Amino acid sequence: xxxxxxxxxxxxxxxxxxxxxxxxxxxxxxxxxxxxxxxxxxxxxxxxxxxxxxxxxxxxxxxxxxxxxxxxxxxxxxxxxxxxxxxxxxxxxxxxxxxxxxxxxxxxxxxxxxxxxxxxxxxxxxxxxxxxxxxxxxxxxxxxxxxxxxxxxxxxxxxxxxxxxxxxxxxxxxxxxxxxxxxxxxxxxxxxxxxxxxxxxxxxxxxxxxxxxxxxxxxxxxxxxxxxxxxxxxxxxxxxxxxxxxxxxxxxxxxxxxxxxxxxxxxxxxxxxxxxxxxxxxxxxxxxxxxxxxxxxxxxxxxxxxxxxxxxxxxxxxxxxxxxxxxxxxxxxxxxxxxxxxxxxxxxxxxxxxxxxxxxxxxxxxxxxxxxxxxxxxxxxxxxxxxxxxxxxxxxxxxxxxxx
Length: 404
Prior knowledge:
Elements: H1 4-9, E1 17-22, E2 25-29, E3 35-43, E4 46-55, H2 60-75, H3 80-92, H4 95-105, H5 110-128, H6 138-149, H7 154-173, H8 203-214, H9 220-232, H10 236-240, E5 247-248, E6 255-258, E7 269-272, H11 275-288, H12 309-316, H13 328-339, H14 344-350, H15 365-388, H16 394-401
Antiparallel strand pairs: 1-2, 2-3, 3-4, 5-6, 6-7
Helix pairs in contact: 4-5, 4-7, 5-6, 5-7, 6-7, 8-15, 9-11, 14-15, 15-16
């Protein structure tokens, strides 16, 4: 039988040697002085060896405890080595590992990936990231979601539940979880409060906003995003994730093609570019061409602007959250274009509120695009008029823009 003193006094020799303790437990002493615990056993007639740890990290008492645990498995006709392999495999199937694997395999828009990563890093990994994914319970997920709700982030709580569900469904499909336990949480979260995004729809105030944007002196990517937003009125995420490869400004009829995977409708969206928009894009080439994004992040050229950048810029310009928002440019365009008399179908198509098969069958795509292009140029001209109007001439501009 070994003692702690015998173990400490065991000196290395020219060749490795073993000192038996009993019950299959031995101490292997290597020439370099390393002292390693080994448990030798037979399983179904075959001799096997299980590593139990290294001394002094694993002392004599703990080594004997691990030996006894292995012998108990043998008594139940379980191979200790196989049991360890299975345990390691289960541990490698941590929720965080599977979530990262899932994100790697998804063809998500850059801005969507960034938001998913933020959700997981901020709210999910600290709570269940280290848990074996097959052992994650609905109660654990709910606790994580409740902590988000307690901060007033109701929409984020619902979005987080959705992301966790996607990962669990992926784990189930790949045989590493039994089911999506978030299905048990239906109705458990508070509903998302109705939220109206702030927007300016008074033409005179729109002019004030445009003049303020023109005088913005912040970071170039933010400055140009602010200037382009009113001209294209796409969703903020679509604007921020705009890539150079999507723009054709050299064509006779310049356009921006937003890929389907970036769109809420999951259909490619075409934005005809007015002369003013083309001029802005061309100005930006010398400033942000080093990135694939027109509006790269302030911290990394490999990422687009954060979702808070445009809103923060509006605050710096003196517009409160109740007055203006990044999404508000869409409301401004929708409201004023309808007031100016443009065809509602054309406006809705340019806002990408409906996919192509939802538009009235009487229109064909080419005819719609011609109407959209005409409207977008007239809208850009109208905005120029509002921006320059400092003498109360808004109404005459409105009358000139109306489509009869």
